[in-house]
Amino acid sequence: MVAIHQVREHNAALGAETPGLVALFTGATRGIGAATLHQLVRGLNTPTIYAVGRSATQFADQRAELQSLNPRAQIKFIAANIALLREVDRVCQLVAEAEERLDLLFMSPGFIPVNGPDYTDEGIDKCMSLSYYGRIRFVSKLVPLLTRSRNPRVLSVLAGGAERHLEVNDMELGKSYSMLNAIDHMTSLQTLAFIHMAPRYPRICFVHAHPGFVATDILSDAFATRWSGVFGLIARFFGWLFIVPFVKTFLAMSVEESGERQAFHATSRRYVSAVARNTGGLEQRHPELESANGVYLLGPKGELKANWRLLQRWIGQGYADKVWDHTMAVFENVELRNREPKSF
Predict the structure, then answer these.
(1) What is the spatial distance between Cα 233 and Cα 67, in angstroms, rounded to a whole number?
(2) Which of 124, 148, 223, 339 has CB atoms 3.0–4.6 Å from 101's, for a disulfide?
(3) Is Oxidoreductase found in the keyword set (predicted)?
């Protein structure tokens, strides 16, 4: 565990430690992503930040606040619907045309899929696209920029360390979709994809963070969804009246603290790439990290959560490669689909 005072001491020194950082944020217009962006902009010296969201108008107030925190920061907004992989590609192309390197890729978009699958016109469930496929698409497209950074880092906020279940024979959950199954499955997909990528891009540090319960609107949004049937009405009633207030009051970390901690995860030399680790790049040696090979699964307070016994079994069974092959097949199918003439 990393004490909050250590986090704050580190974040207070960001300006001297990471000058001119270039970052791309997805999911930064609300919740944990917005809180993390707030912390980094406040602490960094002359950063260039690309924030991706649905509406520049809705981001305007947030952007003004960020500029007031750090007038030397360059805040560049890109309007995009990143549930669509073609929009992910467009964002990556815009950043690649403007920048020579990318130091940080921060990803936190998503929601709780209480009503089952909701497919985009690319044939992918929207939640899975935001929480998994789109994120891996961002990484794969931005690898050339990331590898030009001195200390590149990819930080995905989902549920690292909570890997329990993987639908090996139903990767897209076409037959086995449920809210809990989707969350467990996407968590495992994310970690295994990072494990596949890390040895191929050993200069990149991959962090899969589990923020735990945080007092964001994601739970409120879930209970605001129009659940079907009598059970749905009862669930919404008790959710709004009891569950959401209880979780936010007694179980959840504040959004501000979670943002502080994710900013630490995004910049601390406690977590480094395989190359940096092997050349003495760690602030201090952590024996548990030696098997991580540049992949870190972190709990809400920065604790290492890797269930390496399960992960090693999956790796031995070839699941990391199977996940990657499946992901590339989905990408190819989407590319073919997007090239097909649209009928009106």
Answers:
(1) 43
(2) 148
(3) yes
| Per-residue pLDDT of the chain in tens (344 residues, 90 and over written 9) | 899 999 999 999 988 777 899 999 998 888 999 999 999 999 999 999 999 999 999 999 999 999 999 999 999 999 999 999 999 999 999 999 999 999 999 999 988 888 889 999 999 999 999 999 999 999 999 999 999 999 999 999 999 999 999 999 999 999 999 999 999 999 999 999 999 999 999 999 999 999 988 876 555 555 455 555 544 544 554 444 445 454 445 456 888 999 999 999 999 988 888 887 766 544 444 444 444 578 999 999 999 887 888 998 999 999 999 999 999 999 999 999 999 876 64
SS3 content of the chain, % helix, strand, coil (to 5): 50, 10, 35
CA separation (Å) from 56 to 7, 61, 139?
Answer: 31, 10, 24
In SS3 terms, 11-24 reads as HHCHHHHCCCCEEE
Type of residue found at 140: S
Q: Can you read off the two tokens belonging to residue 321?
A: 């490669």
Token pair listed for 257: 């603290």
Domains of the chain are 4-214+253-339 (3.40.50.720)
Q: How far is CA 177 from the centre of its chain?
A: 21
Q: Within 26-55, where are the H helices?
A: 31-43
| 78 strand-pairing partners | 52
Q: Which two tokens stand for residue 191?
A: 């970690």
The C-alpha atoms of residue 165 and residue 178 are separated, in whole angstroms, by 13
Strands (E), the chain: 22-26, 48-53, 74-79, 104-107, 153-157, 205-209, 295-298
Q: Which residues make Cβ contacts (< 8 Å) with residue 174, sequence separation at least 6?
A: none
Task: Give me the helix-helix angle, 31-43 and 255-267, nearest 10°.
Answer: 60
Encoded tokens for 73? 């920061």
